[in-house]
Fold this sequence. Notes:
- The chain is α/β, with parallel strands linked by helices.
- It has helices spanning 51-61, 78-87, 98-104, 112-120, 147-156; strands at 5-11, 14-21, 24-30, 44-45, 96-97, 133-134.
- The protein has five helices and six strands, in the order ββββααβααβα.
- A hairpin with a 2-residue loop joins strand 1 (5-11) and strand 2.
Amino acid sequence: MNDRHHRHHETPLGPVLLVATDAGLCGLYFDDHVGLDRVDAGRRADTDALDDVRRQLDEYFAGERLAFDIQLAAAGSAFEQRVWGELRQIPRGTTATYAEIAERIGRPRGAARAVGAANGKNPVSIIVPCHRVIGAGGALTGYAGGLARKHALLQLEGAIGKAVVPSAALPWMTQTSLRSPSKSA
Length: 185
């Protein structure tokens, strides 16, 4: 049986909830994440599992990890899985538009909205880097963890010059200190 277990972990952008089964990580959510997969009585808190995920997240935020090596078990439609797979191909420090992702998976540019919907259903934030997808013209658009976090993640990765965020979306950012990515990793 694939019992689900969870663990909370502190990050520079606030606490995250990690949810996994024996098959792999199936959720990574900020506490105020839109569409948060709430922990229910059917899941158990786990203090030992998910240590590798926590370690890799810490390395990522320290600028020491450029890519994640984590077994995923995210549930989604075939189309969502294709989009999420393509998101994992966007290198750290770069961005792509919804239309570009649509083209990469063999869909017409007009499928950008469908890609956006699949992007919005990504249950494994950061690891599946949906924050690297931006709107046409470089505008930051929706992120279930909030635009301020999307901005901070892109800044951490060195891609911030390719995105614009309204300053009103960043009120808590002055309290958050992120180190620049290490070039030696």
